[in-house]
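re: that chain from earlier
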Amino acid sequence: MLRELISSAMSGVAFVSASGATPQQHPPVFTKAALRGQSSIPAVSQQPTCSLAFLAVGAVGSLVAAKQANKRRVNFSRSTLRAFENELGVQAPFGYWDPLGYSSDGNAETFYRRRCTEIKHGRVAMWAAMGYIAPEFFRWPGQCSLSEKLDFTSIPNGLAALKVVPGAGWGQMVAFAGFLEIFAATQDPADPPGKLGGAEVGLGKSYFGALGLYKAGGITDAETKKRKLNSELANGRLAMMAIIGMFFQDGLTGSAWGDWAYYTDSPLRAFENELGVQAPVGYWDPLGFSADGDEKTFKRRRATELKHGRVCMYATLGYIVPEYFRFPGFLSVSENLKFEDMPSGIAGMFATPVAGGLQIFAFMGFLEVGLLRQDPDREPGDFECVGRLGVPYAEGVQDPEARKRGLNSELANGRLAMVAFMGMLFQNGTFGTTGPQMWLP
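^ sequence. v structure.
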């Protein structure tokens, strides 16, 4: 049981079968009726964790899971996320995307409520995104307010319009939205999420049909309807991201299409010309770690990023190369252990002799305090005794443009390697696979 709890903390769901348990061959599929009732999937308790504890427990979980798994692919059908993997909106490449585990209890009523909310927000965001775009190309003729002599053409676009629209106009919009919410576009729990209809007033209930038109006919072909509903969900998700981006760019530059050069107060300006600042995101610091503009802290973090990236590039190759090449002979003569007998991936940590592990740590310590010691007077990751391609005492790259291009490539490849290596660890620990199953379809 402890092994299962540790492994579930790493992946967000319980996935290691108890000894002797038979994996479920056909994961349950939730029908519309099931979404109106309770799921038969057992709930999985969620324990709050801090980030460091999560990393530590995740690493231990990977090791334990890998030790128990062989090279055959482990059946992962016990995941509670299987309950919703056949619902609308489950699309490649992520499948059912729930990284925070909100649906890990398999509760159908909660899923139904959240899906209704997602659809509503997506539809509003699609209208809002169009509300930013359309006024740039078309304005209604005439006046928005006769009493205030306010023309449609004089209303600014974006956030600035919030201060210009008259109070009576806001009252009309709120009243219209309330009318839809409580009377004309209500959600009946007996209907699928997002199927909205008007209240019955003696003439029967009326629904919104294709393209959101009131009392219009729906789509009768099942496959076409499924494709359209999936498209609506995908477009709604994109629109939610788009409108938030428009809000931020409008608020910081004065326009939804404003040039970021106008945002001269940004603290990120201090580092926008540093190495690693690449299109399309520019200087990427979504959590604002460098918002204080402290150069010393930036250099320390850049040195750490380079070190982690270099280690992960080697680690990623360490997963791939042993599948195609092994050194001949013995890794340990005293333990009669050959290189070809060593398992790949996490399991190799358990097979490595203790003396071998100590040698690895000693070698890393030698590099850390000697050859690869960071001089504070040099650029992050630039070591005095190391040249091109990390070869000790080799000549560096002399051409400035070639050097800049090479250093940018190293940063980009290191970032990719960090993501790739974490993915390999999780796949290795979850499924037990280490070979070409990771990188070949």
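Residues 1-60, 62-78 have pLDDT under 50 and may be disordered.
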